[in-house]
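Box 4.2: Ligand-aware structure prediction
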Amino acid sequence: MPSLRGEIAVLATMHGKERAIAPLLSRFLGVHVVVPEAFDTDRFGTFSRDVARTGTPLETARAKIAAGFERVAEARLGLASEGSFGPHPVVPFLAWGSERVVLVDRASGLELVGQHEAPARHVVHAQVHHVEDARAFAARVGFPRQGVIVMGVADGQPSPAVALAKDAHDDESLLAAVRRALAVSGVASLETDMRAHRNPHRMRCIRRATLDLLRAWYSHCPACDRPGYVISARLPGRPCGGCGAPTGQVLADERRCAGCGLVERRLRNDGPADPAHCDACNP
Ligand SMILES: [Zn+2]
Ligand SMILES: [Zn+2]
């Protein structure tokens, strides 16, 4: 089993994510995490829409890691985390959050991804016409521990170009920003700050994604011993308990080694599927 003990990992963040990631990597892998000074990750896109995000979360994480390696030449390992938030892929009206922590070992080319998914109850938006409504919003979301971003509004949509305040730390500065937005656009847009250092819920999700990354590290390919041998696909086809036809329910888990190409499919012993999921006998 390879060891990373004593190695340096550069973590490309400017939002305090080392508080969630560094203690775990130090404790379980013996890795020393460093954060480059004055590292600007906003150029990779921001949640407050003043810089558009391009690429998938994984691509963005890889770009951050490459930039981190440029800054810290002695780092063998690169780390980045990336969150994405949006509607749940299946369940209507449920906000869904996905947090990834990516580790790259430039000595071996190994890339591991840890992931944590959960309902994004901490994503809250509102438009207010009065300062008192802004005060109530702030109290409801747990400001100032949870940050609040204030924007102006144009054509009914939040517009950072009209007004933008991201760093209010107390009621006074928050309400002053709300008054400025109200003065310009007559309505102020408020939303919970999704940057990790202003979002305690996200920080917990990043910690859980880091634990998932450690699980991937400890899961080895039985053929070549490479870490990262985790479930990479869930294959549908579990037979219907009524008629035996294959359903969309999961039949088997697939693991695929990125090193030697070994593929293993393991049947789940879940028994037959509920006919409620069967298109043949319950269309
Ligand atoms: Zn059936
Ligand atoms: Zn392998």
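In the box above, the bound molecule is zinc ion. Residues 221, 223-224, 226, 257, 259-260, 262 surround zinc ion (ligand 2) (CB under 6 Å).
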